[in-house]
Design a protein that fits this description.
Number of helices: 10
Largest sheet: none
Structural class: mainly alpha
Number of strands: 0
Strand content: under 5%
C-alpha cells in the first residue's frame, strides 16, 4: 500500500530546516573557509592559508538555523500550494519554490555571510570588530553588501539542485515501490548539490569578491556589480580564476547536501 505523502507544517519546516542548516555549517566549516580564501583577491596564503580555519564560525552559526528555516518554510509552502499543477510542470514549481526560498533566506543569511567571510579572510580578527568595522565603513547597508549577488548565485543553484533532487527522489521511490528513506534522500541531495555547486562556481567567486569589498568615505568599493565583477576577474586574472575554489566548494556542498537534506527529511518525517 502506498503511503500518503504529507506536507510538513510550519513548525516542522522551521525545526527541520534549522537543525539541518546547523549540522552542515558546523561540520563542514573548514571546507568553506578554504574555498573562501582560494576565491579572495589577495590569494589563499595571504588570506590565512590553513591557519584559523574556524574563523567566523560564530557568525555562521548565528545565521545558519534562521536562514535554513526561512528557506524550507517558504519552499515547502509554495511547493504545496502549487502541487495541483500537472506533473510535467512540477520541475518548474520546484524551481520557483526554491528561488522564492532563497530570496527569503538571504534576508537573514547575507549579513552573517558578510561578517563570516571578512573574518575568514582576516579582514577582522573578532566578531565584534567585524560588526563595528562594517558599520563604521558603510552603515547598515554594509551588512547587505552582495545581497543581489548572493540571490543571483542562489537562484541558478537551487534551480539546478532542487529539480534534480526531487526527480531523483521520485524516480528512486518509484523504482523501489515504496517511500524513499532519509538516507536515500541524502544521497540524492549529495548528487544534486555537487552538480549545482560546480556549475555555479563563477557566481560564487563574484559573490565572495563583492562581499569582501569595503567602501570608505567618498570611495567606491573594489568590486561592485555582477557583470562588471565577472568581466574584471576574467580580464585581469583569466577565466580560470572564475572557478577558484571549485574543488572544496563541490566537495563541501556534496557532503553538505547529504547531511543537510538527509537531516531535513529525517526530522521532517
Amino acid at each position: 500500500m502506498t503511503r500518503e505523502i504529507k506536507t510538513p507544517n510550519m513548525t516542522q519546516c522551521l525545526v527541520a530546516g534549522g537543525f539541518a542548516g546547523m549540522a552542515v555549517d558546523t561540520a563542514l566549516y573548514p571546507l568553506d573557509t578554504i574555498k573562501t580564501r582560494l576565491q579572495a583577491r589577495n590569494g589563499f596564503i595571504a588570506s590565512g592559508g590553513f591557519r584559523g580555519i574556524y574563523s567566523g564560525l560564530s557568525s555562521a552559526i548565528i545565521g545558519s538555523a534562521p536562514g535554513a528555516s526561512m528557506f524550507f518554510l517558504t519552499y515547502e509552502q509554495i511547493k504545496s500550494s502549487l502541487s495541483s499543477l500537472p506533473a510535467q510542470q512540477q520541475p518548474f514549481v520546484h524551481m520557483f519554490a526554491a528561488s522564492a526560498g532563497e530570496v527569503a533566506a538571504c534576508l537573514v543569511r547575507v549579513p552573517t555571510e558578510v561578517i563570516k567571510q571578512r573574518l575568514q579572510t582576516r579582514h577582522h580578527n573578532t566578531l565584534k570588530g567585524a560588526v563595528q568595522g562594517t558599520y563604521a565603513a558603510e552603515g547598515l547597508l554594509g551588512f547587505y553588501r552582495g545581497y543581489l549577488t548572493q540571490v543571483v548565485r542562489e537562484i541558478p543553484f537551487t534551480c539546478i539542485q532542487f529539480p534534480i533532487y526531487e526527480y531523483l527522489k521520485l524516480a528512486y521511490a518509484r523504482r523501489m515501490g515504496r517511500p524513499i528513506r532519509s538516507y536515500e534522500a541524502a544521497m540524492c541531495g549529495s548528487v544534486a548539490g555537487g552538480i549545482a555547486a560546480a556549475v555555479t562556481t563563477p557566481l560564487d567567486v563574484v559573490k565572495t569578491r563583492v562581499m569582501l569589498s569595503t567602501k570608505g568615505v567618498g570611495q567606491s568599493p573594489e568590486y561592485s556589480g555582477i557583470v562588471a565583477t565577472l568581466s574584471r576577474i576574467a580580464r585581469e586574472e583569466g577565466a580560470r580564476a572564475l572557478f577558484s575554489g571549485i574543488v572544496p566548494r563541490t566537495v563541501w556542498i556534496s557532503i553538505g547536501g547529504f547531511v543537510f537534506l538527509g537531516s531535513y527529511e529525517k526530522v521532517k518525517s
